[in-house]
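Below is how a single chain appears once it has passed through the pipeline. First comes the sequence as given, then the structure the pipeline wrote out for it. We keep one example in the README because the format questions we get most often are answered faster by looking than by reading.
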Amino acid sequence: MNLKDNISMVKEELNSEEKFFEKAVMTEKFLKKYKKVMIASATVVALVIGANLIYDMNKKSNTTAANAALSKLQADANNVTALKELKEVSPNLHDVWVYSQAVAKKDLEAIKGLKSSNALIVSDLAKYESATDAASLEDYASKQDAIFRDLALVQSAVMLLNENKVDEARSKLLKVSKDSSLNKIVSALMHYGLK
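Resulting structure:
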């Protein structure tokens, strides 16, 4: 090798080492500048993952405890401790159990007690079941989220027909949705009952 080739090879090595050190210095500056942000981000990610794991474990534990309490109640419906445990672990499931037992026993007072339940369907069913006259059925049907709205209107109309309040019954039947599965009954009542 000649001297010229040796010099150019040394220059290339020095340039590549210089570039390597330059990149190392830039990386070190970047790490120093964003060190706190990177540590905070890693900490936040670790905390979110940890909280999610704890939440999932707690949810599984509650589900298991609720299932165990429900199994005890199915074996012995009068088990007060299992009912109390179910209420603590899963209030909505507790309300469903109480509602099912009240319906089976035809206990109207227990059903009325569930009107303020947080379980939406139980609350709605309790309001419907406890409506005993045309006015309370109308009140139930006037709520936007009433599940049995059309049925309540038909029942209210039938009660009004039995009291010979034909015009009021007609107005109730006209409120029944055209898409309702009760439309044939409404048509029959309008034709035969309200002549």
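The CA atoms of residues 70 and 94 lie 9 Å apart.

See the next section for the split statistics.
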